[in-house]
Write a structure and sequence with these properties.
Shape: globular
Bound molecules: nicotinamide-adenine-dinucleotide
Helix content: 40-55%
Radius of gyration: 22 Å
Largest sheet: 11 strands, mixed
Strand order of the largest sheet: 2-1-3-13-12-4-5-11-8-10-9
Distance between the termini: 22 Å
Structural class: alpha/beta
Number of strands: 13
Number of helices: 13
Length: 379
C-alpha cells in the first residue's frame, strides 16, 4: 500500500511561485520513483511573508508556525521582508522561532555549469553556518538616538572608551553554549557523512572574544572526539583546522579542493555562501537547509528577486536541490540521488535558465518551467 507523506510547503514571495511551480512535480515524481511507488507526497500549503501579510495581516501567521511545529519539517521559497514590517528579516525570525541553529549549504560543481574557475570540479564544500547568533540577533542602535547616547555614555564613564557622539552601535553576541552545540552538530554530521575535514572560518585575530572565542570553543569540542578527529593530516580521521576569514575567501578561489566542511559564525557563513555559489554558477543553483533539534526547514540560498517575479525565467535549481536535501534528511537517500542526477544531466545537456546561459557561449536559455519539465523527464 502507498504511504502518504505530508510535507508543509511555503511557495514564497517574488520568484517563489515561478520556482515552486517548476519544482513541485519533480519532488512528487522522485518520491514515487525512488521508493518504488511505496510513498507519495501530500503537500500542506502554508502562508508566510507578503502573501500572508495581504491575506492575514501577519508576516508569519500562527497556523503556519503551528503546522511547521507539528510536522517538524517544511520546504519554503524565498520571503520578502517589507521595509517597516516589524521584523528585521522574516527569514531570520523563522530560524530564531524554531531555533534552527545550523544552516547547511552544500556547494558542489555539477558538470556543465559555468564557472570563473579553471578547474571548478575541485569545488565540493559544505558551508555550515551558525544560524541564531552573531549580528543577526539584531541588537543595534541608530546614531543620535537616546539609546545609542546611553551606550556611548556607559562606554565613556564605565569602560573608559570614548567614541564620537555620532556613532551607531551594534552588538555582536557569540556564546559558548551556541558555539558548542553547533560544533557538536557539525562533527556528528561530518562523521555520519564521511567527510574529510572541518575548517573553522573566523576573524579571531581582530574580534578576539567573539570570533576568536568561537574558534577556541570549536577546538575544545573537537578535542572531545579523539577517535574521529585529528589536528594533523591523517588518512583515517577527519582533519580539524581553521582559517582566518579573509584568507578563506582567497583559498576557496585558489585551492578549493583543500577544503571540505567550513564551520562558520553567522556573518562569515552568509558572505561565504554567496561567494562560493559564484564559483559554481551562482545563487540560482545553491541549495540550503536550516536545521534545529526539533524542526528543519529547507530553502534556496537566494532571495525573492522581485524584478524577475512571474516571468518564468529564473533558475529553480536551488529549490530543486533544497528538496533533495530534504529527502536525504528524511532518510530517502535514493530519492535525493535521483533528483541530483537528473539536475546534473539536464544541465550537461545545455538546458539552463538565463542566469547560467549568460555565463556560457552560444547557449540559449530555457524558461523555469521548461527546465523543471526537463529535470522531471530525466528522473
Ligand atoms: P536575491 O537573492 O533575491 O536576488 C539577487 C539577484 O540574484 C537577483 O537580482 C538575480 O539576479 C539573482 N537571482 C536570485 N535568485 C535567482 C534565481 N533563482 N535564478 C536566477 N537568478 C537569481 O537578493 P536581494 O535582491 O538582495 O533580496 C530580495 C528580497 O529577498 C529581499 O526582500 C530580501 O530580504 C529577501 N531575501 C530572502 C531570503 C530568504 O527567503 N531566505 C534570502 C535572501 C534575501
Amino acid at each position: 500500500m502507498t504511504e502518504i507523506i505530508k510535507i508543509p510547503c511555503i511557495a514564497g514571495d517574488g520568484i517563489g511561485d515561478d520556482i515552486w511551480s517548476a519544482s513541485r512535480e519533480i519532488f512528487e515524481e522522485a518520491l514515487i520513483k525512488g521508493t518504488a511507488g511505496q510513498k507519495k507526497i501530500k503537500w500542506i500549503p502554508l502562508l508566510a511573508g507578503l502573501k500572508a501579510l495581504e491575506k492575514e495581516d501577519k508576516l508569519l501567521p500562527d497556523k503556519t508556525l503551528e503546522t511547521v511545529k507539528e510536522y517538524k519539517i517544511a520546504i519554503k521559497g524565498p520571503l520578502t521582508t517589507p521595509v517597516g514590517g516589524g521584523f528585521r528579516s522574516v527569514n531570520v525570525h523563522l530560524r530564531q522561532i524554531f531555533d534552527l541553529y545550523t544552516c547547511v549549504r552544500p556547494v558542489r560543481y555539477f558538470k556543465g555549469l559555468p564557472s570563473p574557475l579553471k578547474t571548478p570540479e575541485k569545488v565540493d564544500v559544505i558551508i555550515l553556518r551558525e544560524n541564531t547568533e552573531d549580528i543577526y540577533k539584531g541588537i543595534e542602535w541608530k546614531e543620535g538616538t537616546e539609546e545609542s547616547k546611553m551606550i556611548l555614555d556607559f562606554l565613556k564613564n564605565k569602560m573608559n572608551v570614548s567614541l564620537s557622539s555620532d556613532t551607531g552601535i551594534g552588538i555582536k553576541p557569540i556564546s559558548k553554549t551556541g558555539t558548542v552545540r553547533f560544533t557538536k552538530w557539525a562533527i556528528d554530521y561530518a562523521i555520519k557523512n564521511k567527510r574529510r575535514s572541518i575548517t573553522v572560518v573566523h576573524k579571531g585575530n581582530i574580534m578576539k572574544y567573539t570570533e576568536g572565542a568561537f574558534r577556541e570553543w570549536a577546538y575544545e569540542v573537537a578535542k572531545e572526539y579523539p577517535k574521529a578527529i585529528s589536528f594533523e593530516e591523517s588518512d583515517e580521521k577527519i582533519l580539524f583546522n581553521d582559517r582566518i576569514a579573509d584568507n578563506m575567501f582567497m583559498q576557496m578561489i585558489l585551492r578549493p579542493d583543500e577544503y571540505d566542511i567550513l564551520l562558520c559564525p553567522n556573518l562569515n557563513g552568509d558572505y561565504l555562501s554567496d561567494a562560493c555559489a559564484a564559483l559554481i554558477g551562482g545563487l540560482g543553483v545553491a541549495p540550503g537547509a536550516n536545521i534545529g533539534d526539533n524542526v528543519a526547514i529547507f530553502e534556496p540560498t537566494h532571495g525573492s528577486a522581485p524584478k524577475y517575479a512571474g516571468k518564468d525565467m529564473v533558475n529553480p535549481t536551488s529549490l530543486i536541490l533544497s528538496g533533495a536535501l530534504m529527502f536525504r534528511y528524511m532518510g530517502f537517500d535514493a530519492v535525493a540521488t535521483l533528483i541530483e542526477k537528473a539536475v546534473e544531466e539536464t544541465i550537461q545537456n545545455g538546458l539552463v535558465t538565463y542566469d547560467l546561459a549568460r555565463q556560457m557561449v552560444d547557449v540559449k536559455p530555457v524558461s523555469s518551467s521548461r527546465f523543471g519539465r526537463e529535470v522531471a523527464e530525466r528522473l
